[in-house]
Design a protein that fits this description.
The protein has 20 helices and 14 strands. It is globular. The longest helix has 19 residues.
């Protein structure tokens, strides 16, 4: 066995591999285990129930017999079990959410042990809390900790950068608005853990505000032109054929975190032991990324679809802040989400029939000097798009495993350690190309002049 040759260590350990998303992550990882030119040579899965993990391995291996993969005991409430995992892993993939309840002990163990860590969290309070608590320790031990390595928030990060890089000087963007549209030939059914995280996010919103007030203000990038107006609550985006409403997701927060780090480090973050060629590539990449105001909206082809989204948001906002309300929301998810979420998740057929499109509508100036001369109305528009399969069970595992493969094969080109958002770490790598090779496309839709 490969792990025996490496003193009982594994390239990757997947924590929470028996969960709804975890088993799809395991299935995606098995595609690359031991494959020619793949850096993934050994893997283990971990969690509380060996029986459920065995069943997940059998499911993920179909139609082939399951490979011999070690199953390791681990519980996020048992620090000693997490220390034991970190001692045996080069990289830990955490799929055990909700992360605000179960994630921080795992990050703490990895930061203490110098074990690299990726997760699929989309929970701002968790991400900012672990950055505040564990960044210095992780930087010291060489543990690279990166959250939001799934649909939250890599398509937003790479998609915003992809749009930004189309603004070739002297042109410059002022704002980029992302519009997320979920599509399905059957019905759209979300992961209960995503719904649970949204409900708990409302409950802990005050904690996030307290945390931000207690920390130094992040630097803000210089963006040509004025900040965008709030606009209408419900927008009709004619160019892409969608009705849209603002989406309070992690994406805009994660993108802003990357831009804040980039403001302090205009050439990006230096690698652990990167080659001169990689230094040059990193400098060239970040010099082509132009900061812009960024926001996210969820879109629907019909106004009725948007009204339905607003109603679900109202339910979560009203009931999520009180104990009895949260109990009702979590006890009856199908009722309060109007059928979008259920405890047993979607069927395999519903997963296979679903897809997403994420449009990036950028407004800016054909010449950056126009904005500095006091002309505040953008005169140029660039529309790009990221498109891929179902978001929670297909796109998220694809992204997480490709991030893992990059980390295993290009570790010297990545930062030594610390807690970071995915964009600042993986932006200069070949992640976008890898995603394109695995069913997630990046396209330029149009470049046009905006008439006054």
């Amino acid at each position: 066995m490969e792990e025996e040759q490496n003193g009982g260590r594994f390239d990757v350990i997947i924590l929470g591999a028996s969960g709804f998303t975890g088993k799809y992550v395991l299935r995606e990882a098995l595609k690359f285990l031991g494959a020619p030119s793949s850096p993934l040579k050994s893997i283990a899965i971990a969690g509380r129930s060996p029986q459920k993990l065995t069943q997940a391995l059998e499911w993920a291996s179909r139609p082939n017999p399951p490979p011999t993969i070690p199953i390791l005991p681990a519980d996020t409430a048992d620090p000693s079990s997490l220390r034991a995992l970190c001692a045996r892993a080069a990289l830990l993939l955490n799929c055990a959410g909700p992360f605000r309840l179960h994630g921080e002990p795992v990050v703490a163990a990895c930061a203490a042990a110098g074990c690299d860590y990726l997760d699929i969290a989309g929970e701002p309070e968790f991400m900012e809390r672990v950055e505040a608590a564990h960044h210095e320790r992780a930087a010291e031990t060489g543990a690279l900790v990166v959250s939001a390595c799934g649909f939250d928030s890599v398509p937003a990060e790479l998609g915003a950068m992809f749009n930004s890089r189309q603004w070739v000087g002297p042109a410059a963007p002022n704002r980029v608005e992302a519009y997320v549209a979920l599509e399905s030939e059957k019905r759209i059914v979300g992961n209960f853990a995503t719904y649970e995280s949204a409900v708990l996010g409302v409950a802990s919103a005050h904690k996030l505000q307290q945390l931000r007030r207690s920390r130094p203000r992040k630097p803000r990038p210089m963006i040509p032109g004025p900040p965008p107006s709030k606009g209408e609550t419900i927008e009709k985006q004619k160019k892409i054929g969608l009705w849209a409403v603002k989406l309070p997701s992690a994406d805009s927060i994660v993108v802003r975190r990357t831009l804040a780090i980039l403001t302090e480090n205009p050439h990006g973050l230096p690698g652990l032991n990167e080659s001169p060629e990689m230094v040059e590539k990193r400098d060239a990449f970040w010099s082509s990324v132009k900061p812009a105001h960024f926001g996210v909206k969820i879109g629907s082809k019909s106004l009725l679809g948007i009204l339905r989204i607003i109603m679900v948001g109202v339910f979560i906002g009203l009931f999520g802040s009180i104990g009895l309300g949260r109990w009702l929301l979590l006890k009856f998810p199908s009722i309060f989400s109007l059928g979008w979420f259920r405890k047993n998740g979607p069927s395999e057929e519903e997963v296979e029939s679903a897809s997403f499109k994420m449009w990036f509508v950028g407004h800016g100036f054909s010449n950056e000097s126009i904005a500095s001369q006091g002309y505040t109305k953008p005169d140029m528009e660039i529309i790009t798009r990221v498109m891929g399969p179902e978001v929670g069970y297909l796109t998220t595992p694809i992204i997480l495993i490709q991030c893992a493969l990059i980390l295993l094969s290009q570790r010297n080109n990545l930062p030594k350690g610390g807690v970071y958002p995915p964009g600042i770490v993986f932006g200069p790598t070949d992640l976008q190309e890898r995603l394109q090779q695995n069913g997630i496309s990046f396209d330029i839709i149009s470049k046009s002049t905006i008439s006054s």
